[in-house]
Every structure is written in C-alpha cells, then in structure tokens.
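REQUEST
  id: r-88c1
  op: predict_structure
  target: AcrR family transcriptional regulator
  payload:
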Amino acid sequence: MRADSSRIVREDARQNRQRILDAAREVLTRSGHDVPMATIARRAGVGVATLYRHFPNRQALLTEVFDRQFTECVSVVDEALADPDPWRAFRIAVERLGAMHAVGHRLTSAFAAALPGALDLDARRREAEWKLAELVRRAKATGRLRADFRVEDLVLLLKAVSGVATSTTEAAAGSRRLVAYLLESFEAGSDRPLPPPVRFAGYPGP
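RESPONSE
  id: r-88c1
  status: 200
  body:
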C-alpha cells in the first residue's frame, strides 16, 4: 500500500508540474512576463504553494518554459534536415517556425527582457545556428534558394512575423500570408542585389 501511495503522490506531482508549465506558457505568451505567479497558479488549478514547490522563483519557471520552446524550435529544424528534399524541407521549416513564433514571440521577448543570461544558450544557440546554416546550404545546393540568402534572414523573418501577430487570429492568418510572400522572395531567379544582412545581437532563439 505504501508503494502504491508513493506512486500516486509522484504522479500527482508530475501532473501538477506539467499543468503549471502549460499554464505558464499560455499566460506568458498572451500577456508577457509581468503576470503574477498567483495568476499562473490559478490558471493551472493549483495553489501558489504548490507552484513554488516545483519552481522556487519566477526565473526557474520562465527558464524551463522557454527551454521547452527552444527545444521545440530546434526539433523543427531536425525534422527538416531528415527530409530528402532540401527545398521542401526549407520551406516547411520556415513555415513551421513562423507559425510557432507568431504565437510564441511574447514568450521569447519576455524571457529576453526579464531573464538576461538566466539560461546558458551559447552552446545550444551555436548548434541551432549550425543546423539552420546546413538547412540553408542544402536548399541553395538545389538551385531553388537564392545564393545571397543568409541564416540571419530567418531571424529577420521571425521579427517580421512578430510585427503582425497582434492577436491569436491575426497571428495565424497574418503570419502565414507574410511567410508565404517572403518564401516567394527567397526563391532564386531575381538578379537584384540585397542590402547587407543584419545580425540581431542577443536574439535568444532560432
């Protein structure tokens, strides 16, 4: 009986932790980093004490929520690299990353504003950038992606998506249309030179 009780307690704790993370992601995505911890606890259906047992402070909670979002973005690129068609892989990855960023850009901004340096992303960022660069290299090798396209242009695209994502409905519709327009401009065929690429300092995710 004691072993069964322990398993039930552990499962309840696991479920509570997941509910807190889900609620935090939803609330922070919608409202940014100024949301009180009590609001997150209420959304998760747990007490504030339960929230603090799992996450002793706001930094710990935001770090894990953002870490999960970062991992999801990288997994999109991993799936694209496994696709045997590099141009299709590039287009699908850009579409998916754009859609994810349209609804998650507030979380990214909240993390950058509230927790500078809280999560050591240097090694993971370098790995993500290498994967993105490889995705771009393969797409260029097909002759379908314009030769002057740079990885930094993907960050530019995500920032542009953030500009149209003012609500959930607009984020879905507006970001899809914007990404579709931009993908057309990325395709090879234009001989018009572009201005130099821009490196956005401190951008915390792919």
